Request: fold
Amino acid sequence: MEYEITSHRHAVAVLESQPEYTKLWKEVQQALTGISDEDIIQLHEEKYSNQKSISTALNTLIKERMENLNWKAESPIFSSDELNFSLDKRGTKRKSGVWRLDFAKASISVEVSFNHGEAIAWNLIKPVIASEVNHVKKAINTKVGVIICATQAMKESCGFDGAVGQYEKVLQYMTPLRNMLTVPIVIIGLNAPKTFDVEVIETDKGKRGIIRRL
Reply:
């Protein structure tokens, strides 16, 4: 898989020049470049063919590859159970996703953002929260953040909903939020596949994404 990169506060220079980060940065890149078009096609058709876009298949593949490299998924930012868990209507304790990072390892945190555009600011702020000193004990101390999202080209060709916040829109947030984003952050925009696209069709059960080989 190919992608675009934008560096906030010299994040890429930091990742490539400091030994404590270099191996971790290479692992993130390895996880992404190791995903082929055929991997996406196979998983989408086998498990998620009833879905409109390839986002679930892509999320699953990224998670598999990151976990294979020993990155911790759904890593809590704080140590507090009060923040990391909530009670449902039956009083059962459930994990809360609010104060969690998609992946973390050592001092790097990673967010995979294929969700609504309104979540862009929150996804950018989470690495900052995980990096700065505050009044709640941390479970992880982030030094560099990585945000992974779809480019406009992938969004248009792969069935993503129009409300999804794409790479280009994330970049628009960087200037107004610059003073708030105190931690170096790499924004990665995943390019559209070269060998297929997705045709969205209407079915009795809703919209469905059909893979079309190019």
